[in-house]
Amino acid sequence: MIKVVLAANQYASALIKPRGNSARIIELVYEGQFALVMSAPIVEEVRRILSYPKLKKLHGRSPGQIDSFLKMLEKVAILTPSLLSVGVIKDDPTDDKYLVCALEGQADFIVSGDHHLLDLETFQGIRIVNPAVFLEALGQEL
């Protein structure tokens, strides 16, 4: 089964644009079309960014709704321990958490809208793509 790490911006996009590619990816997670891989640092980043006042206005979810959203994802996700350390993304070292999660979870893809990740294109055999490219690739795999 395909394993995927989603960057925090994908969770935010899914809540802000319920008919967009990121929301479709979350739907496919719940349908079991591929395995979602997460780590505690990713969950915390998602919780933090969804709490930003600017984003709260856009997605309109309460803290309780955000917690429920994250708990549902954690139930279906493969959770990695986040024990490895990599120093790959010099311009934004906090993005290394996605590479660590993908390595530990043996992911096939990282899906992101962040240029720091996308500019890498691949990392140790893991493809780093935007949501549209991922959905296209997934369609070819199914």
Can you characterise this structure?
- This protein has eight helices and six strands.
- It is α/β, with parallel strands linked by helices and 142 residues long.
- The protein has a single domain, classed as Rossmann fold (3-Layer(aba) Sandwich), CATH 3.40.50.
- The chain has a six-stranded mixed beta sheet with strand order 3-2-1-4-6-5, with helices on both faces.
- β5 and β6 form a beta hairpin.
- α1 packs across α3.
- The N and C termini lie close together (10 Å).
- The model has no long low-confidence stretch (mean pLDDT 96).
Output the keywords.
142 residues, alpha/beta, Rossmann fold, 6-stranded mixed β-sheet, 53% helix
List the helices and strands and how they pair.
Blueprint: E1 3-6, H1 8-16, H2 21-30, E2 35-39, H3 40-50, H4 53-59, H5 63-76, E3 78-80, H6 96-104, E4 109-111, H7 115-118, E5 122-123, E6 126-129, H8 131-141
Parallel strand pairs: 1-2, 1-4, 2-3, 4-6
Antiparallel strand pairs: 5-6
